[in-house]
Target: Rhophilin associated tail protein 1
Amino acid sequence: MPQTDKQICIPPELPELLKQFTKAAIQTQPQDLIQWAADYFGAMSRGEIPPEREQSESGASSNWAELTPDLLKILHSRVGGRLIIHVNELAQMWKVLSLPTDLFNSVMNVGRFTEDIEWLKFLALLCSSLGVTISKTLQIVCEVLSSDQGGGPPRIPFSTFRFLYAYVAQVDGEISASQVSRMLSYIEQEIIGPDGLIKVSDFTQNPMIRLE
Model:
């Protein structure tokens, strides 16, 4: 006899998962729901914060999500380790995360980017919009770029730090090239170990290092 009354088991977490997804989709109002859904569940599978607009102080849905270090990490993961990314592709990633268009345009203008964008420079300028000071900006960059797992201190290659510090200082325009060179030489000679990595605490808690 064919089995016609086979019981279907519904995973206990499914109703709540679908409820949260539906709520996020309604709040975000994505133009491409299928693509947004793929990004939403993809982020969840990676343990990241799904793309979702935040609520404004009045309680109504805001037009844009607020840029945060967590969203920068998501954006960086989608760039996938590339040094150069085309402006149209990056703009699409930006749109999927519901980030503010005016911020994207501002960074494009400040960095004088064209079609092919140097991702690390673009990322550094995004971090500067959160960091205020150069030291805080570089701290955020390290936290975004660090691949350390297990709660270890954020670390990046010193070569990357050197590139980013020189670039951010150049854009800032208030720090001389000689000061940047002195600080980098001191860090390289006195701080960096054989692993060639620099930790956030190396340049935020050492009174001998003044990046500003």
Summary: The chain has two domains: 42-50+67-131, 133-212. Confidence is low (pLDDT under 50) at residues 54-62. The longest helix spans residues 14-28. The chain has ten helices and four strands.
